[in-house]
Design a protein that fits this description.
The protein is α/β, with parallel strands linked by helices. The protein has a domain at 38-168 and 209-242: Rossmann fold. The chain has helices spanning 21-34, 38-52, 68-76, 91-103, 141-153, 172-188, 193-203, 212-222; strands at residues 58-62, 83-88, 112-116, 127-133, 155-166, 226-233, 236-242. Strands 3-2-1-4-5-7-6 form a seven-stranded mixed β-sheet, with helices on both faces. Helix 2 runs parallel beside helix 3 and helix 5 (141-153) packs across helix 8 (212-222). The longest helix has 17 residues, at 172-188. The protein is globular and about 50 Å long. The termini are far apart. The mean pLDDT is 94. Bound molecules: ligand GEK.
């Protein structure tokens, strides 16, 4: 696994963060060291796929990056006749994702289509499981209601939507504490203070976090009968919603 040193030098100073080839090259290391609870989210996606993927249905991985959630679903799905559709709009992610999936030993199991597309343009139909693992946060806030409503409309009754996000706290005091704990976590994972500050600046206006209640209200407005936070680690949460 190549080490993420993208912000170790100032070469990318003042450039907004993008999912380019250099990011794709170090992505597993970047997520492992940056997102508290990331490994737990992938493990749970497998357990949930075993329970919720329905025979003859489609499972979606929206913003699939290198396909970690797709791999977890593919190795866990027990229902026959399922298909996985994995979508990302970054060419570097999609080409690496295809290689990762082809090299995986479960490649003969549930078929996977990897599509390079904007998730806002992708149709959702016959879905028993939809995963957005840390992806909705990169859409314009104005596009998020339509995205979640589209997911709900394309899902089968009893289907599951897993939404993981970086969040912001309503209480500024709590927000400050959670951000500081996250940065401390990154320092423990061998990011320097300078790397942390540069990455934070690059993500400004690119990753736009909302509060947990804004997410849950949006899910309820879309029609999800049940939703709940199953994971929280500092300012990172994962929510499941059931149609
Ligand atoms: C994982 N889910 O490993 N359309 C398609 N893809 C998009 C869009 C869009 N509009 N916006 C962003 N992306 C993965 C991790 S990473 C999370 C997801 C992170 C894609 C973007 O190219 C990137 O690959 C992914 O969403 C977000 O479980 O980097 O913090």
């Amino acid at each position: 696994m190549s080490k993420d040193t993208i912000y170790a030098s100032g070469a990318d100073d003042n450039k907004p963060f993008t999912f380019n080839q250099s990011v794709a090259d170090v992505f597993p290391d970047m997520l492992r060291r940056s997102i508290p609870g990331y490994a737990a989210s992938i493990e749970a996606i497998g357990s949930l796929a075993a329970r919720y993927a329905m025979a003859g249905s489609v499972c979606y991985d929206l913003g699939c990056s290198l396909g970690a959630a797709t791999l977890a679903m593919r190795s866990a799905i027990k229902a026959p006749g399922c298909r996985i559709i994995a979508v990302d709009n970054a060419p570097a992610m999609v080409s690496r994702c295809k290689q990762v999936l082809a090299a995986d030993e479960n490649s003969a199991a549930t078929p996977v289509d990897v599509c390079q597309a904007d998730i806002r343009d992708v149709g959702i139909a016959n879905a028993s499981m939809v995963v957005m693992n840390y992806t909705l946060q990169f859409l314009d806030v104005a596009a998020r209601d339509t995205m979640v409503a589209k997911i709900y409309a394309g899902m089968l009754a009893g289907g599951l939507f897993l939404l993981s996000e970086k969040v912001i706290d309503e209480d500024p005091h709590m927000e400050e504490l959670l951000v500081e704990l996250h940065h401390e976590h990154k320092r423990r994972n061998d990011y320097s203070q300078l790397e942390i500050s540069r990455k934070r600046a690059a993500l400004e206006n690119v990753l736009i976090p909302e509060t947990v209640s804004v997410h849950q209200e949006r899910l309820a407005r879309a029609g999800f009968a049940h939703s709940g936070v199953w994971l929280r680690y500092f300012n990172f949460v994962s929510i499941v919603a059931i149609k």
